[in-house]
Design a protein that fits this description.
The complex is a heterodimer of chains A (103) and B (248).
Chain A (H helix, E strand, L loop, with lengths): L1 H12 L1 H4 L8 H7 L2 H15 L14 H16 L2 H18 L3
Chain B lengths: L7 H8 L3 H18 L1 H13 L4 H10 L3 H12 L4 H12 L1 H13 L4 H9 L3 H14 L5 H26 L12 H12 L6 H16 L7 H22 L3
Helix pairs in contact in B: 2-10, 2-11, 3-5, 3-10, 4-10, 5-6, 7-9, 9-10, 12-13
The chains are: A mainly alpha (103), B mainly alpha (248).
Amino acid sequence: MILGMALINLVIRWPVYLFANHFRFPPIIERALAFVPVAVLTAIIVPTVLYPGDGTVLNLSWKNPALLAAMIAAAVSYFGKNLFATIGAGVVAFLILRWLLPV
Amino acid sequence: MAASEGTASEVMEGRSDTPGSEALRGLRDTLPFMFGSIPFGVIFGTLATGAGLSAWQTMAMSLFVFSGSAQFIAILLLGAGSGLWVVWFATFVLNLRHLLYAATLVDHVRHLSQAWRFPLAAFLTDETFAVMERRYRTQGGGPNAHWYYIASCIGMYLNWQTWTFIGITLGQEFPDVQNWGLEFAMVVTFIGIVVPLLTSMPYLAATVTAGLVAVIANPLPYKLGLMLAALCGIVVGVVLDISKRGLK
């Protein structure tokens, strides 16, 4: 099982780099690739924040510390334009809010 | 110092791009993600031994598979009594996103030898992708950018092995590690990367779409919701982009 998983990972990760000299992506694909980071990262962030805990219950309430802290982090990122300030503010806000707003 | 000279760190960053300084910067910029994956490594180590894998098998999975999400799904499926093919299929579907990652970064590794490209491909994770995408976008390439890249890979790899190991040996003694809030460091790091990218309507629309679909599709098995959400976001972004600027 482990060997199979390792091989599958390699089969997905390697070929694009391996054959990098022999093909280029058509323009429409290159255009699409520009949207990969925002789309994938958002698709990871949003469920993590809105489905806290075991990931089965949607929590849109203002008592969800992850939601509030994520909004604070987004605001710090927008106005502060500094990655480390964003991470610091987000984590500190999360820890404080979780302590203030027990489930 | 005059404001136009920039901050001390900017001046420092502009000064040197030797392999060593690139590697140091790569490692430094990966640090938040290394912290962020601590709970995942520890929890994986704890859960895997609980799901029936031996300590050696658990360690081997981290060493050779090196894919947090696939490893978690595998032990989840194993615990539910799934067969080998289900585990392999889930690994495949879950990691399809790495095709997109590799395709996004390939222009920056095209000039390297195959001996470099292999490790850069095999060790490409969500975290290193996020770090590298940001680096190439904000600072461009550079003659030794691959040292920055490989340092990020090695940092993530050694970090993952360390915390898997600690999870195996000590995990039982810290059953509340899930509640430390460390994984939230990963979420806010991603937020700090996405927000500055939202500079135009198509990007904003792609993000909102991906977020909405991710929430609606969250109950889908094997994290298919993630793929679906990302694809919908990309399609919306491209369609708006083309209608705004035309194709080309």
